[in-house]
Amino acid sequence: MKDFRGKTAVVTGAASGMGLALAHRFAAEGANVVLADVEAVALDAAVIELTALGHNAIGIVCDVTQRDDVFALADQARQHFGAIQIICNNAGVESGSRFTNIPQSTWDWVMGVNFYGVLYGCQAFLPLLREAGEGHIVNTGSMASLQGTQPTASPYIAAKHAVLGLSESIHHELKRAGEPIGVSVLLPGLVRTNMAYSERNRPHGVPDTAADPEREEQRRWAIEGTAQGKDPAFVADLVLDAIRTDRFFVPTHPDLALAATERRMRWLERDADTPVHTLEAELVHQAAASAPVTHPTTL
Ligand SMILES: NC(=O)c1ccc[n+]([C@@H]2O[C@H](COP(=O)([O-])OP(=O)(O)OC[C@H]3O[C@@H](n4cnc5c(N)ncnc54)[C@H](O)[C@@H]3O)[C@@H](O)[C@H]2O)c1
């Protein structure tokens, strides 16, 4: 897909961060945009901003952990704009602790948003992309799709690995069948969003980990790292380029993504160079690999 004019893009987690930046980028290219998010107030503000700029945008409150919500999103988007060509399954959250301290409710929430949200999005929207005659699925993974070294983050790491596996599998199935539908997996490193505060959306029954001493290092790394991370608008540009060129892997920090994969290969080959994660070191690397900030308002 080279031209987004008159096409319709649906973005989950569109009220903040990379989802919001994607919504702006698609709209700027002349696409209709459906913004979906669980945060109704932020979603309204995002839609008002886009429509004030003269763009065709609607907001639909949707909790991606709820399969019925995601299918209702697909129905409403189709009813409103007629055909859907792009789905960005982008909503994501992070929480955890040491593995043995993580309650099932945290697993259900983190897997529910990061993995099942993506799965439901693929299930609900792939038939609509087929109906439109062309399309693209963009699933948001993470550097945590490529390495499992981040401490206290086992639910997030498991979910993001699952997103990569699911996306790769759908990609090959569609390519084998010669279908005109592309799949990309976005693999962000640190990006300047509200991700470090994702527990703001935790459902009743999921514990707050703000005071968990096991999470101290992870918490500090996430807050400081995202504050110094890449601009979400830069990431949105990468995604649109990946759709245009039908590229599967979309790493925001390609050098770090390659280094992580190579470390894993060496580990697999020789059981040597076992990756050891030091969050401090990674923060320095990621900051060094960051692009200049151009749109501070897209946080
Ligand atoms: N920021 C980073 O450094 C980073 C790094 C790697 C991966 N990611 C991934 O990028 C994606 C976007 O996150 P972001 O960094 O823009 O964070 P963000 O917190 O700024 O935005 C995430 C959005 O998802 C929404 N959301 C949360 N739970 C939801 C649910 N159940 N249903 C619908 N929407 C929900 C939030 O309300 C928010 O608007 C996520 O999948 C995240 O895991 C981010």
Briefly characterize the structure.
The protein is an alpha/beta fold and 299 residues long. The protein has helices at 17-28, 40-52, 67-81, 104-132, 154-176, 216-227, 232-245, 254-270, 279-288, and strands spanning 8-12, 32-37, 57-61, 86-89, 135-140, 181-187, 249-251. A seven-stranded parallel beta sheet has the order 3-2-1-4-5-6-7, with helices on both faces.
Biggest sheet strand order reads 3-2-1-4-5-6-7
Shape call: globular
| Small-molecule components bound | nicotinamide-adenine-dinucleotide
Task: Identify the CATH class.
Answer: Alpha Beta
The largest sheet, given as strand count, sense and whether it forms a barrel, is: 7 strands, parallel
DSSP helical segment count = 9
CATH structural architecture: 3-Layer(aba) Sandwich
- Residues in β-strands, percent: 5-15%
Rg, rounded, reads 18 Å
The total domain count is 1
H and E string: EHEHEHEHEHEHHEHH
Low-confidence stretches: 292-299
> What is the strand tally?
7
Average pLDDT, all residues: 93
Could you tell me how far the N terminus lies from the C terminus, measured between alpha carbons in angstroms? 28 Å
CATH superfamily: NAD(P)-binding Rossmann-like Domain
Helix content: 40-55%
CATH topology: Rossmann fold
- Class by alpha and beta content: alpha/beta
